[in-house]
């Protein structure tokens, strides 16, 4: 097997990463669901201390869209992907490694005039992609946090977060 990734596959997985980031930032969780593989490998160990080897896509969307996480209307984000590189694992699996800056801002009121806290994460993000029925799908992620700035701990309430986690299989 050649490690070369055909242009069409590179384009497709690059677009999946863009869609993932834009869906998070736009809070468009129906659109997010459309790009996902049936199960995902989610390793949020460095961010939230949780990971799943095989999380059903519906459970992932339910978790991410929860008002205690990205579904919170008082939290706005921008997941900026920088340089990327890709590794072909098999004919049906590619891993992408991306530089990422995830800016988070939490507001006090829905009018978004007063900022409660800012928290920006700087990381390396690994995305997993799987080819299913001839189409590439987003199959998971693993961020490695390099450093955070501002008050990331004020963006998410850790006690509230414990109520939204699906059971782990790790």
TrEMBL record:
Pfam name, any one: Scytalone_dh
SUPFAM superfamilies assigned: NTF2-like (SSF54427)
Amino-acid positions noted as binding substrate in the UniProt annotation, renumbered to this chain: 24, 44
Record's keyword terms, sorted: Lyase
InterPro entries: NTF2-like_dom_sf, Scytalone_dehydratase, Scytalone_dh
Annotated GO MF terms: scytalone dehydratase activity
One GO BP annotation of this record: melanin metabolic process
Active-site residues per Swiss-Prot or TrEMBL entry: 79, 104
Organism domain of life: Eukaryota
Domain Scytalone dehydratase-like stretches: 4-157
Family membership noted in the UniProt record: Belongs to the scytalone dehydratase family.
Descriptive protein name: Scytalone dehydratase
């Amino acid at each position: 097997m050649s490690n070369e990734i055909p242009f069409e596959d590179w384009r497709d997985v690059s677009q999946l990463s863009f869609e993932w980031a834009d869906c998070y930032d736009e809070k468009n969780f129906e659109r997010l669901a459309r790009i996902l593989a049936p199960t995902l490998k989610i390793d949020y160990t460095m961010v939230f201390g949780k990971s799943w080897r095989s999380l059903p896509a519906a459970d992932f969307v339910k978790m991410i869209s929860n008002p205690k996480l990205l579904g919170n209307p008082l939290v706005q984000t921008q997941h900026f992907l920088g340089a990327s590189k890709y590794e072909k694992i098999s004919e049906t699996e590619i891993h992408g490694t991306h530089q990422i800056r995830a800016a988070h801002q939490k507001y006090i009121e829905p009018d978004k005039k007063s900022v409660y806290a800012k928290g920006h994460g700087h990381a390396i993000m690994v995305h997993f992609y799987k080819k299913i029925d001839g189409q590439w799908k987003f199959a998971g992620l693993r961020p490695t946090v390099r450093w955070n700035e501002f008050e990331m701990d004020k963006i998410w309430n850790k006690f509230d977060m414990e109520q939204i986690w699906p059971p782990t299989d790790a």
